[in-house]
Amino acid sequence: MDLIRPSRTKAAEDFTAPLLGGKSFRLSQHRGQPVLINFWATWCPPCRQEMPSMERLWRQHKDSGFVMLAISLDADPEVVPPFVAEHKFTFQIALDPKMDVANAYGVRALPASFLVDRQGHLAALALGPRTWDNDAAHSLIEGLMRQ
How confident is the model over 19-66, as pLDDT tens digits? Predict the structure, then answer.
């Protein structure tokens, strides 16, 4: 799996973002769990391409403590719920229409994904779409679970 690994240990930027359904997600509340943070938008074809494989990865690892959060950068948050319902995504979806979280993570293009280890450090990042349900991705998540 083609990922960028940080050359030195760096804490992932903490944030709070509203989830679909009204609750909120705070990254620091998931310390002890590996987290995949994916920045995307409904209008982004490569994002739409990779999301079904994200769903399959999520379904395989959700019961083991793995956390997946897809953060929509759509300027109009109203377009997100119908898209999620149409595609039957079950992982958590957050909204970042003003790009506060995206800017904190330096996101300049979509999709962009960040893997955070159980200690809250940035473990890897992926710029551009990936296939998230292959052996390499499963091994990566399983390795983060064991750390």
Answer: 999 999 999 999 999 999 999 999 999 999 999 999 999 999 999 999
Domain ranges of the chain: 16-22+33-146
The pTM (predicted TM-score) of the whole model is 0.95
Longest alpha-carbon distance in the chain: 40
Which residue do the tokens 């943070």 mark? 37
Tell me how far CA of residue 118 lies from CA of 60, 122, 139, in angstroms.
18, 10, 15
Q: Using CA atoms, how far apart are residues 129 and 2, in angstroms rounded to an integer?
A: 10
Instruction: Give the per-residue pLDDT at 1.
Output: 67
Average pLDDT, the chain: 95
Tell how strand 16-18 and strand 24-26 pair up: antiparallel
Burial 77-95 (b: 16+ CB within 10 A, else e): eeebeebbeeeebebbbbb
The CATH homologous superfamily to which domain 16-22+33-146 belongs is: Glutaredoxin (3.40.30.10)
CB-hemisphere CA count at 13 Å for 16?
4
